[in-house]
From TrEMBL:
InterPro entries: Dihydropteroate_synth-like_sf, IspG_bac, IspG_bac-typ, IspG_C, IspG_TIM, NO2/SO3_Rdtase_4Fe4S_sf
Gene3D superfamilies membership: Dihydropteroate synthase-like (3.20.20.20), Sulfite Reductase Hemoprotein, domain 1 (3.30.413.10)
The IspG C-terminal domain, residue ranges: 270-357
Lineage, broadest ranks: Bacteria, Pseudomonadati, Pseudomonadota, Alphaproteobacteria, Sphingomonadales
Source organism per UniProt: Croceicoccus esteveae
Protein's name in the database: 4-hydroxy-3-methylbut-2-en-1-yl diphosphate synthase (flavodoxin)
NCBIfam families, alphabetized: ispG_gcpE, PRK00366.1
Domain IspG TIM-barrel residue range list: 15-254
Amino acid sequence: MSTIRPWRTIERRKSRQIMVGNTPVGGDAPITVQTMTNTPTSDAKATIDQIRRCEEAGADIIRVSCPDTDSTAAFRQIARAAQVPLVADIHFHYKRALEAADAGAACLRINPGNIGSTERVSEVVRAARANGCAIRIGVNGGSLEKHLLEKYGEPCPEALVESALDHIKLLQDHDFHEFKVAVKASDVFLAVAAYQALAEAVDCPLHLGITEAGGLIGGTVKSSIGMGNLLWAGIGDTVRVSLSAEPEMEVRVGFEMLKALGLRTRGVRVVSCPSCARQGFDVIRTVQALEERLQHIKVPLSLSVLGCVVNGPGEARETDIGITGGGNNKHMVYLSGLTDHHVESQDMLDHVVALVEAKAAEIEADMSDAGKSTAMHAAAQ
């Protein structure tokens, strides 16, 4: 039901594209959603189980920490089991980067300036190039280099950007260009200013994040304010919402952020009211139940859940499926913006789920037919 409107269009910053495994990042590729495992990487089974949950939530790329040899030893099994590209998170131990690259990492998260000599940087670049790995430079306001803190006195946008440019130069000096960069900070103002300045200075893909953002609610708000500002300005090619919550929740919040800005369209977009005394059914509990029961829907469609007829009909006209509360425990169902039929309260939840699942199957079938038609047309040329 949604229509592209000029005032709703975001013009993305032009960046060059790199590959993280088989996933393009930057250029005109969709903005990818990332998360990070928090299980001990040496426990391959637990890590794979967590990766599977993140994949089901829609994660495009997943980062896995590799702090020791037990972790890189398990990484090969983990990488074989994963269905999305994995980023091996390395900090200071360059040998872990070499091991992870050989074990199947699609990307290495490493700051070249933190691993020691030029020879070590050369070794990491050779391993990345030999294994088709990208590199993510990850500058963080909480761990800036000592000389930059002495120069600027405190973490500031100029310090973060200078750190990033120094690390970038180390890779470019080795003729390595398959990298993306992050300049994260837990302070929203600092992070946004740093990303804005870096976006003007380089053409590589940018990985967005507000680091150490907090718990599920507070971290979601901080991340949405900071990353939302940047995304609205067209800055950002891949995102990770850092929450003190389960990794799959980071993925869900990331997609909701992108969906709100019209930058990704995965799954059900729910339009619902906060509820009031006019509601004809329990809107809050209904929406909670629907969000849980419809997580498995991958195709994009919209659902409005409104408690009464004040704004209900207007919102329902803009969604694929809608329901508005009515009297006598009977509620109006809208299909493709038009009134269609009534449903009683006791049947409403199951009925809406069934309608969404049927609509999703219809959309999937249309997409499949369109894909076949395109392939046949291409073959005939």
